[in-house]
Amino acid sequence: MTGVALAEELLLLAYDDETGKATMPRISLDLGMAAAVLVELALAGRVAYADGSLVATDPTPVGEPILDGVLARIAADTPHTPSSWVQRLRHGLRDRILDDLVDRGVVRHVEETELGFIVVHRYPLADPSVEEDTRLRLAAALAGGEPPDERTAALATLVAVLRMEPALGLAGKAAVDARRRLEEIAGGAGFSGTVSLDDSLVRPSVALVITTLGQAVDAALGPRR
After folding, report:
1. DSSP-assigned beta bridge partners for residue 50
2. Helix axes 26-43, 82-89, angle to 10 degrees
3. Tens digit of each residue's pLDDT (9 = 90 or more) over 115-145
4. Fold of the CATH domain 6-221
5. Residue 37, phi then psi, degrees to nearest 5
6. Backbone angles phi, psi at 120, to 5 degrees
7. 165 secondary structure, DSSP code
8. How large is the C-alpha radius of gyration of the chain?
9. In this model, does residue 200 exceed pLDDT 60?
């Protein structure tokens, strides 16, 4: 791990640095963070796809509280499909990750009241270094050249499925080109398309979570145009 979880990187990309508000539909962000946690655990060799379910193959903590909490939950529960886990984990996950980022000084928590009675929570950026690293890695991946490392490829895959090109500051043809490149990265890393369980336990596990995420996002937002 880089010290920053994939779900945290997604969240930082999805929130405006100045206003501290989400710039994408929260339902897709919540689904994406749940998928990101499962992807990270698969990459760490802690969970894998087996007999139609995503199961804990190694309950050893990875040293990140949110990931370890999910791992313990998967290990203690009956087996569930990747789709079931994505839906089960998305509830409340964003708040836990935001609280963790606040505690670490990455974002600030600002509570305001609008119209006299509506409580609004904002999370403007406090320490830009984490998000800067994320954006630099994605920019290098989009630029081509050497294939990105495994975690960056996983992040690029999640960004593509969640339709987060605008969060990268891209629109129009640039966004279309970026999406194409992100999808190329996903395929090249074995995180999308058909991947054999005989070749790898990690990649089909990740690919199935990504497929589940794509279906959930399409159901929530409608097919991508």
Report:
1. 53
2. 120
3. 878 899 999 999 999 999 999 999 999 998 7
4. yeast vps74-n-term truncation variant fold (1.10.3630)
5. -65, -45
6. -115, 135
7. G
8. 17
9. no
Q: DSSP 3-state assignment of 81?
A: coil
Q: Which two tokens stand for residue 157?
A: 């895959």
> Measured between alpha carbons, how far is 206 from 159 in angstroms, rounded to an integer?
14
Structure tokens, 108: 């600030």
Give the per-residue pLDDT at 25: 93
Structure tokens at 195: 């991947």
pLDDT value of residue 170: 83
The C-alpha atoms of residue 216 and residue 9 are separated, in whole angstroms, by 20
Comparing C-alpha atoms, which of 130, 66, 55 is closest to residue 92? Answer: 66
| 28-to-5, 11, 154 alpha-carbon distances in Å | 18, 11, 17
Q: Could you list the beta-strand ranges (E) of 4-155.
A: 47-50, 53-56, 110-114, 118-122
Amino acid at 149: D
Is the CB of residue 46 less than 8 Å from the CB of residue 58? Answer: yes
Q: What is the pTM of this model?
A: 0.91
Q: Does residue 15 have a pLDDT over 80?
A: yes
